[in-house]
Design brief:
By secondary structure, the protein is mainly beta.
């Protein structure tokens, strides 16, 4: 059974940084890739960044140049480094496979104050 657990969220001022982590069991990032998603209040869940199984990365236009997705294959852990955070980045962040086809975890809340 695949389990994905997000951590690292919190409250940060605009312009600050956070690093989110995703620990997996029953799922191998090196083989299957990883996706980070977010859902802001009143909005649909959206893809933020992903690493496909072949290693190609994609970013949403809104985070390009500010966020970096990575994975540590030895630890089977994925990360989302978020810099220059903006209030509009406030959301619950989730990890999943690159296409969001697995069961969703609880997510981790990121709140960016202005």
């Amino acid at each position: 059974q695949v389990q994905l657990a997000e951590s690292g969220g919190g409250l940060v001022q605009a312009g600050g940084s956070l690093r989110l982590s995703c620990a997996a069991s029953g799922y191998t990032f090196a083989i299957n890739g990883i996706g980070w998603y977010r859902q802001a209040p009143g909005k649909q869940r959206e893809l933020v960044a992903r690493i496909l199984s072949g290693g190609m990365t994609n970013y949403a236009d809104s985070v390009t140049g500010r966020f970096t997705i990575s994975r540590d294959t030895a630890k089977n852990t994925a990360y989302l480094q978020m810099n220059s955070l903006k209030p509009e980045d406030t959301a619950v962040y989730y990890c999943n496979d690159p296409f969001g086809s697995r069961a969703w975890g609880k997510g981790t809340l990121v709140t960016v104050s202005s």
